[in-house]
Amino acid sequence: MVQSEVNVAVADKKSVGEGLVVKDLHVNVEGREILKGLDLTVRQGEVHALMGPNGSGKSTLVNALMGNPTYVVTSGTAALNGENILNLPPDERAKVGLFLGFQYPSVIPGVSVANFIRTALVSLTKPRARSESDLLTETGEVRVDGQSKENTDLKPTSYVGRGGVARSNPAIKEFRKNLREKLALLKMDESFATRYVNDGFSGGEKKRLEVLQMAMLKPKIAMLDEPDSGLDIDAVRIVSEGVNSLRGPDMGVLLVTHYQRILNYVKPDYVHVMINGKMVRSGGPELAQELEQQGYDWLRTDLGIEADDESERGSNDDDNF
Ligand SMILES: Nc1ncnc2c1ncn2[C@@H]1O[C@H](COP(=O)(O)OP(=O)(O)OP(=O)(O)O)[C@@H](O)[C@H]1O
Ligand SMILES: [Mg+2]
User: Fold this and answer.
1) What is the DSSP letter of 142?
2) Is 240 a domain residue?
3) How far is the centre of ligand 1, averaged over its atoms, from the C-alpha of 198 (Å)?
4) Atom of ligand 1 nearest to the CA of 61
5) How many domains does the chain have?
6) What is the pLDDT of residues 246-302, one digit of tens each?
7) pLDDT digits over 69-87, tens only?
8) CB contact set of 43 (below 8 Å; sequence gap of 6+)
């Protein structure tokens, strides 16, 4: 199936909202064009697998969408449920419901997993920064309806129960319960909650933590960049079960992977192949199987893409280091 046919199929599918809609996206990294006009639609309720050779631009796409300033969007559009996200800073993109599980998660010494996730949750519930036009009417008056609808799920920690007796905050209790459940789901020991973020974590533990964050933050669109890399066979299944348990009409997933194995568990609705900064083929789960069996060369041959076209990436570099 070619890209345009898939987009029609996506448009016909009954899903929640418009989802993440990316059109003709061009992205530069350090002055070099990496994404060269990319189209993609991921609706809530759908799972899309994104495959492609090393260096084809998969991580560039998800990082650019999340707002990493190293990845400079030079043209094209990206919207989440109709709202342009390209002008928003990363935290605002998270507030509209976008999430990125990193290919290479960072260590944050001194910050526990529990605190990190709770801080992220609290910040998601803070009102979004508003532009002048949101706050003021056309005549310059302050809008009365400009009040934020702050989510009151997480109240301040000083909670005084009946009779003036200080008790632990019910929101924190709820948070701990939820965290415990999600840790169990991902077969992570409860002691992870008190460890510093990724500090001394094995590769597999780091990937589980990314999925744990997704489970706790409940994004509308979750982009997972190789959640299966470095995982042993059991861990792939556990992480997949974690993703599957969150699947539903409210969440769309863009799953970047090199391997068919995770797709045996997390069955994708669509599979896309990126080569040299463009989507070259989209289809159903059978496309991933074909790639597993035949590699990318048959696609390159099919599409008349020379390996040289890809190596042209480095051609403007100096020969000497
Ligand atoms: N932060 C960066 N600094 C410099 N170059 C970068 C950076 N990120 C990506 N690139 C370059 O952009 C190109 C695409 O890289 P990207 O990481 O997006 O590929 P990928 O498809 O995710 O590959 P992989 O499958 O190996 O993860 C590569 O040539 C890479 O060197
Ligand atoms: Mg990558």
Assistant:
1) B
2) yes
3) 22
4) 18
5) 1
6) 999 999 999 999 999 999 999 999 999 999 999 999 999 999 999 989 999 888 888
7) 999 999 999 999 999 999 9
8) 10, 13, 15, 16, 17, 18, 19, 20, 252
> Please, are residues 267 and 301 in contact by the beta-carbon 8 Å criterion?
no
Rounded distance from Cα 310 to ligand 1 centre (Å)? 13
Give me ligand 1 centre to Cα 194, in Å: 33
Burial category of 263 from C-beta neighbours within 10 Å (exposed 0-12, middle 13-18, buried 19 and up)? buried
Other C-beta atoms closer than 10 Å to the C-beta of 241 total 16
Q: What is the CATH number of the domain that holds 253?
A: 3.40.50.300
Taking ligand 2, which is a single-atom ion, which protein residues have CB atoms under 5 Å away? 58-59, 103
DSSP 107: P
Range of the domain at 27: 5-129+156-309
Reply yes or no on whether the pLDDT at 7 is more than 70.
no
* 135 within domain boundaries: no
What is the position in ligand 1's atom list of the atom closest to the CA of 52?
Answer: 21
Paired tokens of 28? 């530069």
Q: Is residue 282 part of a domain?
A: yes
Q: Is 141 exposed, middle or buried (0-12, 13-18, 19+ CB in 10 A)?
A: exposed
Q: How is residue 39 written in tokens?
A: 């189209």
Q: What is the pLDDT of residues 83-133, one digit of tens each?
A: 999 999 999 999 999 999 999 999 999 999 999 999 999 999 887 766 666
| Exposure string over 34-44, b if 16+ CB within 10 A, otherwise e | bbeebbbbbbb
- Identify the nearest ligand to the CA of 259 by its number: 1
Residue 148 covered by a domain: no
If phi > 0 it is left, if psi is from -120 to 50 it is alpha, else beta; for residue 290 that is alpha
